[in-house]
């Protein structure tokens, strides 16, 4: 039973006891929910896991470099396995067995990776991690785009992280001022194409992977191309995203929800970015540190005030940042004077005060919601 | 949703999707094989002394690591041309003079591909390296170990020991085939001049 199903059952029971739902209606609602949400069943999960295990077995077989099977035979075998996976996927799709199709695609994708490894093994290639990850990622993208497959889109997102780490590592991550536009642009292009394939396949997970990939890409670019602390860039992007997400222009209304994911990414990036800046200035003038602390505290309050009532993730993250920042300030300013026990005592008092304040704020959100 | 969006989102016919994927995946593997086999078939052969050691790769299995001291740490005086003014991630070109027995020695290093290499020479392209503008000529400071994509020799599980013991005596050599575009490909691994493994084309 899924978490959502349990939550729903609990809520419905609540409503029935409170007299909001006529007796018997709750069971009907739950039955309707069960009828429409059979997509992600245990069988489906097991099928995908089985495909992953089988694919891993193929990869291990290649790695064993078993000489009993001649090389051309091994290549042929892998081509046949890739083909078999694809044929199974096509047949499953025609019978509308979406999860069998997904599992078969995962298997094919792993066999494709094994195939690239096999060719590298046959011809003793070394130092080709970048090309390896790039080709594998492109395979996943092709698969996801052509089959509209969510699992392949997720695979492409994960492999793209492999590509990013291979290429940034090869270029000596953070060496500074590297003049290779192609390498930087290739990651961006791959991220955008996976975004399209995630959108086509309707995969939320793949969408988040792309967002994270692009954030990592941005950090890489900032470190490589400039001496600026990536915190500034993150904060600027976060501010923009938060502003767009929370004051969504009507033109984008069908594209993203107000106070939704865009807004949440914005809030997290903004606060993380300012935090990075603060870490950089650690140990400098106390005035600078206190100014930064005031900025972070007020930023988290502003974020709370604008979107806290609508988005639980934003609310929790802003509380967390606020509390962490207060403790940081206390430790920086008073920690040395008070000694550790005094600091812990004061920290406890401060957190208790925050907890009271939070309770009050929550109550106001509640009444605000009831009125609207 | 707009017309364009729904067009982009329309699922492809499964059979076409399957064929597209199969062509891409199997085709790319075939192209990789073909490009490597062509170097083995048509490339110019050079012989290099090597020193193996053997770890393991997760996806490709056991391998013997090969080191080529003559070409990976070439003489500092051999670099010709100007050091880049801006940081670059680029390959270096080595000009090798090849003797009668195939033994190769580096005669020049450059950033660009030499136009006229002359007879009896082979042009070898290294994997890209970080050329830092600030650090000055890093080759003359002996800061790199250049790589050529031939630093690994994959062996069946557990068979690395034989080569390893030959390594200890320093008797291993490798025959490398080099394509016209400067790409290197291991063709044979030899101990005391006798071939241990001969690479088939496919």
UniProtKB/TrEMBL annotation, chain A:
The UniProt record lists the DUF2157 domain at 13-152
Query: Which Pfam families would you find in this protein's record?
Result: DUF2157
Keywords linked to the UniProt accession: Membrane, Transmembrane, Transmembrane helix
Asked whether the UniProt record includes Membrane among its keywords, one would answer: yes
- Which residue ranges traverse the bilayer? 40-63, 75-93, 105-124, 130-147, 154-175, 181-199, 206-223, 229-248, 260-279, 285-306, 313-331, 337-359
Q: Which InterPro entries match?
A: DUF2157
Q: What protein is this chain from?
A: DUF2157 domain-containing protein
TrEMBL record, chain B:
TM stretches of this protein: 12-33
Q: Does the keyword Transmembrane helix apply?
A: yes
What keywords tag this UniProt record? Membrane, Transmembrane, Transmembrane helix
In terms of InterPro entries, this protein maps to: GDYXXLXY
* Protein name, UniProt field: GDYXXLXY domain-containing protein
């Amino acid at each position: 039973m899924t978490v959502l199903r349990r939550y729903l059952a609990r809520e419905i029971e609540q409503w029935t006891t409170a007299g909001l739902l006529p007796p018997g209606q709750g069971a009907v609602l739950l039955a309707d929910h069960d009828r429409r949400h059979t997509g992600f069943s245990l069988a489906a999960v097991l099928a995908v896991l089985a495909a992953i295990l089988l694919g891993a077995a193929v990869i291990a077989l290649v790695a064993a470099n078993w000489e009993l099977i001649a090389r051309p035979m091994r290549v042929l075998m892998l081509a046949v396995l890739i083909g078999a996976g694809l044929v199974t996927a096509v047949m499953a799709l025609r019978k509308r067995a979406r999860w069998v199709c997904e599992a078969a695609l995962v298997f094919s994708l792993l066999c494709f990776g094994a195939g690239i490894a096999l060719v590298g093994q046959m011809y003793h290639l070394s130092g080709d991690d970048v090309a390896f990850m790039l080709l594998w990622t492109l395979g996943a993208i092709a698969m996801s785009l052509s089959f509209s497959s969510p699992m392949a889109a997720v695979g492409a997102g994960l492999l793209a992280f492999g590509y990013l780490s291979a290429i940034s590592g090869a270029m000596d991550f953070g060496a500074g001022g590297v003049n290779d536009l192609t390498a930087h642009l290739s990651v961006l292009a791959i991220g955008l194409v996976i975004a399209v394939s995630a959108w086509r396949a309707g995969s939320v997970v793949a969408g988040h992977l792309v967002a994270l990939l692009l954030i990592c890409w941005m950090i890489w670019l900032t470190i490589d191309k400039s001496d600026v602390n990536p915190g500034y860039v993150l904060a600027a992007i976060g501010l923009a995203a938060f502003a767009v997400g929370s004051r969504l222009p009507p033109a984008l209304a069908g594209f993203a929800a107000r106070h939704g994911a865009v807004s949440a990414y914005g809030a997290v990036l903004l606060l993380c970015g300012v935090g990075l800046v603060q870490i950089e200035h650690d140990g400098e003038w106390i005035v600078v540190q206190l100014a930064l602390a005031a900025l972070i505290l007020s930023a988290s309050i502003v974020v709370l005030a604008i979107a806290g009532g609508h988005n639980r993730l934003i609310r929790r993250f802003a509380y967390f940042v606020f509390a962490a920042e207060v403790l940081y300030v206390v430790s920086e300013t008073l920690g040395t004077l008070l000694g550790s026990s005094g600091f812990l005592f004061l920290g406890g008092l401060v957190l208790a005060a925050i907890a009271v304040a939070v309770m009050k704020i929550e109550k106001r959100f509640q009444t605000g919601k009831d009125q609207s | 949703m707009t017309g364009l969006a729904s067009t982009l989102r329309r699922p492809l016919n499964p059979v076409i999707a399957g064929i597209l994927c199969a062509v891409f995946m199997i085709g790319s593997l075939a192209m990789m094989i073909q490009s490597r086999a062509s170097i083995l078939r048509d490339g110019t052969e050079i012989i290099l002394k090597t020193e193996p050691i053997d770890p393991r790769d997760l996806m490709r299995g056991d391998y013997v690591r090969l080191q080529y001291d003559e070409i990976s740490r070439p003489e500092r005086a051999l670099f010709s041309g100007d050091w880049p003014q801006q940081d670059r991630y680029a390959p270096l070109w080595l000009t090798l003079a090849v003797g009668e027995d195939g033994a190769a020695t580096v005669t020049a290093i450059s950033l660009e591909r030499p136009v006229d290499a002359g007879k009896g020479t082979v042009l070898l392209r290294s994997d890209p390296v970080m050329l830092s503008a600030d650090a000055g000529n890093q080759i003359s400071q002996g800061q790199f170990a250049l790589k050529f994509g031939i630093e690994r020799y994959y062996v069946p599980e557990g068979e690395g020991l034989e080569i390893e013991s030959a390594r200890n005596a320093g008797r291993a050599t490798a025959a490398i085939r080099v394509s016209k575009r400067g790409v290197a490909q291991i063709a044979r691994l030899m101990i005391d001049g006798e071939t241990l493994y001969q690479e088939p084309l496919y």
